[in-house]
């Protein structure tokens, strides 16, 4: 083979092999997310919420409470089915330097949880997801595709009950979002356009104002 031919051969070989090589290269893991919180209340969400977040992703949200207090995370807007776990710690500096106490486990949309509570000094929420796949809950009917979560946290007394006005997308009949008011005094549903009612239960298919009741099986709209 001439020198030119062998060069050509080498180039062709490189081109042929390149895609395979690229496919095998692992995608970078997105880690510019999460955070540390020690205020009396606040909220945090997945990157780009309510839009798609990058995957693969690894994030840590670390919430710290003063001694003798409890931490509660309210799952006001929560659409993840996999990937998020919670654990309690005596302290947490980083992955190698922490004092682990207890696993709370998977926080999943399917469990219909309203909140996660910890009476230990640190509550760690860890998101680890390689692909979106079927791990996101789609709110199909209204062409709304929401990814991840946007949740609030509050530092409360250890024996304090979780708040009675607490809501989630279930409480808002999937027709609205649950938000904390400014200063976190109240939680309530804010309805999507076309819906109304305390639980956003009234809308195009069930509207007492317009005398429309097209609910499942022709039943009466419930209050
Ligand atoms: C909260 O965190 C900030 C920044 O990390 C720190 O300066 C502050 O001392 C902390 N406050 C409490 C009450 O731990
Ligand atoms: C974790 O924190 C400890 C204590 O501050 C430090 O010595 C160690 O280098 C940190 N490790 C990593 C992986 O950041
Ligand atoms: C929200 O729904 C849960 C059950 O999913 C219920 O326990 C709770 O009382 C409801 N909250 C409100 C404010 O209606
Ligand atoms: C996230 O939740 C907080 C508190 O409920 C709310 O004020 C904020 O607007 C929400 N952000 C998004 C993007 O929904
Ligand atoms: C919000 O909460 C405060 C204090 O808990 C209460 O006084 C007020 O009436 C509430 N507002 C609404 C709109 O529910
Ligand atoms: C609502 O519809 C029902 C049956 O279609 C009718 O009997 C009733 O009079 C209507 N009420 C109003 C306020 O229009």
From TrEMBL:
<feature type="signal peptide">
    <location>
        <begin position="1"/>
        <end position="22"/>
    </location>
</feature>
<dbReference type="InterPro" id="IPR035914">
    <property type="entry name" value="Sperma_CUB_dom_sf"/>
</dbReference>
<feature type="domain" description="CUB">
    <location>
        <begin position="33"/>
        <end position="156"/>
    </location>
</feature>
<dbReference type="InterPro" id="IPR000859">
    <property type="entry name" value="CUB_dom"/>
</dbReference>
<dbReference type="Pfam" id="PF00431">
    <property type="entry name" value="CUB"/>
</dbReference>
<keyword id="KW-0732">Signal</keyword>
<keyword id="KW-0245">EGF-like domain</keyword>
<feature type="domain" description="EGF-like">
    <location>
        <begin position="163"/>
        <end position="201"/>
    </location>
</feature>
<feature type="disulfide bond">
    <location>
        <begin position="172"/>
        <end position="189"/>
    </location>
</feature>
<keyword id="KW-1015">Disulfide bond</keyword>
<feature type="disulfide bond">
    <location>
        <begin position="191"/>
        <end position="200"/>
    </location>
</feature>
<dbReference type="InterPro" id="IPR000742">
    <property type="entry name" value="EGF"/>
</dbReference>
<protein>
    <recommendedName>
        <fullName>EGF-like domain-containing protein</fullName>
    </recommendedName>
</protein>
């Amino acid at each position: 083979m001439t020198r030119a031919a062998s060069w050509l051969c080498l180039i062709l070989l490189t081109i042929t092999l390149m895609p395979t090589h690229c496919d095998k290269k692992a995608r970078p893991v997105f880690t510019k997310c999460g955070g540390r919180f020690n205020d009396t209340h606040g909220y945090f969400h997945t990157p780009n919420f309510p839009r798609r977040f990058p995957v693969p992703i690894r994030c840590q949200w670390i919430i710290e409470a003063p001694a003798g207090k409890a931490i509660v995370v309210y799952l006001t807007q929560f659409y993840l089915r996999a990937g998020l776990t919670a654990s309690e710690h005596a302290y947490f500096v980083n992955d190698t330097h922490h004092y682990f106490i207890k696993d709370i486990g998977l926080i999943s949309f399917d469990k219909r949880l309203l909140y996660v509570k910890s009476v230990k000094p640190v509550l760690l929420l860890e998101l680890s997801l390689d692909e979106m796949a079927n791990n996101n809950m789609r709110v199909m009917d209204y062409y709304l595709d929401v990814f991840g979560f946007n949740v609030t946290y509050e530092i409360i007394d250890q024996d304090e009950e979780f708040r009675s006005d607490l809501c989630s997308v279930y409480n808002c009949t999937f027709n609205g979002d649950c938000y904390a008011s400014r200063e976190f005094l109240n939680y309530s549903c804010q309805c999507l356009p076309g819906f109304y009612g305390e639980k956003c239960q009234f809308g195009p298919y069930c509207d007492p104002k317009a005398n429309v009741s097209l609910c499942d099986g022709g039943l009466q709209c419930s209050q």
